[in-house]
């Protein structure tokens, strides 16, 4: 079966022992609850980790208006940006000095840097593009959210929360093994504070 929104919802419902659905728009209690929770759950799960499968890179466009105070420049974030997890002043992956100080406010990134390159978590809405473990995380979190409204069980809800925590930890661990780990830089303040 191809992965879809309904498939992820049915994984969650199945773990609760609930009836499966055919569409988020069908006239059933389970479908109505899935429809309420699905999109928010999807975005929440995507921002829980720097998932390789939904990480994108962008060069930000500087806005003409400067921030009212605190920083010199404002940059527009990409429309699909859920969370910035790295910002640099250079496009070089090897440049350890390129990390910048910044603040995200609304849909803008504020900084004193004249150029900004980011890595960010994108709002990917196509479930066929999610890595399998992200699908597992989404279904586990959704089953936690649905446990009380669908099964009317607070004890099942607590059990599903523990299950979600375990699945998330495992998924993060495995996802982190894909690619070269980000290196700790000797210039990090916490590392040099004792010297």
Describe the structure.
The protein is of the alpha+beta class. The protein has 2 domains: 91 residues, no CATH class; 73 residues. The protein has 5 helices and 7 strands, in the order H-H-E-E-E-E-E-E-E-H-H-H. A 4-stranded antiparallel β-sheet has the order 2-3-6-5, with no helix packed on it. A 3-stranded antiparallel β-sheet has the order 1-7-4, covered by helices on one side. Helix 1 crosses helix 3, helix 2 packs across helix 3 and helix 3 packs antiparallel against helix 4. The C terminus is likely disordered.
Give the key terms:
5 helices; elongated; three-stranded antiparallel beta sheet; alpha+beta; about 200 residues; 7 strands; about 40% helix; disordered C terminus; four-stranded antiparallel beta sheet; 2 domains; single chain
Strand content: 15-25%
Q: Overall 3D geometry?
A: elongated
Number of domains: 2
The assigned structural class equals alpha+beta
The Cα radius of gyration reads 20 Å
Number of DSSP strand runs: 7
Q: Largest sheet, if any?
A: 4 strands, antiparallel
N→C terminal distance: 57 Å
Specify the number of helices. 5
Order of helices and strands: HHEEEEEEEHHH
The helix content is 25-40%
Write a brief structural summary.
This protein is α+β, with helices and mostly antiparallel strands and 195 residues long. The chain has helices at residues 5-15, 29-47, 132-151, 154-176, 189-192; strands at residues 55-59, 61-62, 73-76, 81-88, 102-105, 108-111, 117-122. Strand 5 (102-105) and strand 6 form a beta hairpin.
